[in-house]
Design goal:
Layout: H1 3-13, H2 16-57, H3 63-71, H4 79-95, H5 101-123, H6 127-156, H7 164-227
Helix pairs in contact: 1-7, 2-6, 2-7, 3-4, 4-5, 4-7, 5-7, 6-7
Length: 228
């Protein structure tokens, strides 16, 4: 009998509660892997976009032309959304004839801060779910194991002579629940830690860009004030 068939047989022989525990952990594992692939794709895209945008931004491109080019796109995300939000607010405040450079920069920085918060929230989507899977799956599996072993020993108490052949299947099916809990938890914890670190790095890069972009706009505003 193959290992796969034996595992399926053990699942069928398990009590209803242990079966529910196994199915729950299997669902957690499938959902966790779906989130892992989705988050990996989105975070990688954001990191690649950051590199491409910064190369273009620091190459000396005209900011107005760059804003027009990006604004024409149907979908703006990542660092481009910060740039568009900041430049749009900067242009709007200047058109409103506000003469105070500090007021202009405060409004611009506030708009970029809102965009930054929105982008970080997007990058962190479903990460709490992965943390939850990583933290509770071993305990759910352990609960299934304890319940299965408890039922096995209760059944042994009803017979006069217990043998290893009688107790082994019950213990095996119970231990599978713990194994499934670890199988669901370990990838979720590893992916959560990795993605959290990557999101933190992106957030720091976005924050640095905000400060540098604000400095550029501030120097531009100060130069215009001196020319008037």
């Amino acid at each position: 009998m193959s290992a796969e068939i034996s595992f399926f047989d053990l699942f069928l022989q398990a009590s209803l509660l242990v079966q529910l525990v196994m199915l729950t952990l299997l669902s957690f594992s499938i959902a966790s892997w779906a989130v892992i692939f989705q988050r990996r794709k989105n975070i990688t895209q954001a990191a690649n976009q950051l590199q491409v945008f910064e190369d273009k931004f620091w190459s000396g491109a005209d900011l107005s032309k760059l804003y027009t080019e990006i604004s024409a796109r149907s979908h703006i995300y990542g660092i481009e959304s910060l740039f568009v939000a900041g430049f749009k607010e900067f242009a709007r405040i200047r058109k409103s004839n506000i003469s105070s450079p500090q007021a202009v920069m405060d409004g611009t920085h506030r708009a970029m801060r809102v965009a930054l918060s929105r982008e970080v929230d997007e990058l962190e989507t479903h990460l709490p779910f992965m943390a939850t899977v990583g933290s509770i799956s071993p305990y759910i599996g352990l609960f299934g194991t304890v319940w299965g072993i408890m039922n096995s020993f209760i059944a042994l108490g009803a017979v006069e002579q217990a043998t290893l052949a009688m107790v082994a299947p019950g213990i095996a099916e119970a231990l599978i629940a713990t194994a499934m809990g670890l199988f669901a938890a370990i990838p979720a914890v590893m992916a959560f830690n990795r993605f959290s670190h990557q999101v933190e790095k992106l957030e720091n890069s976005y924050g640095n860009f905000m400060d540098e972009f604000s400095s550029i706009l501030q120097r531009q505003t100060a130069g215009e004030q001196q020319n008037q």
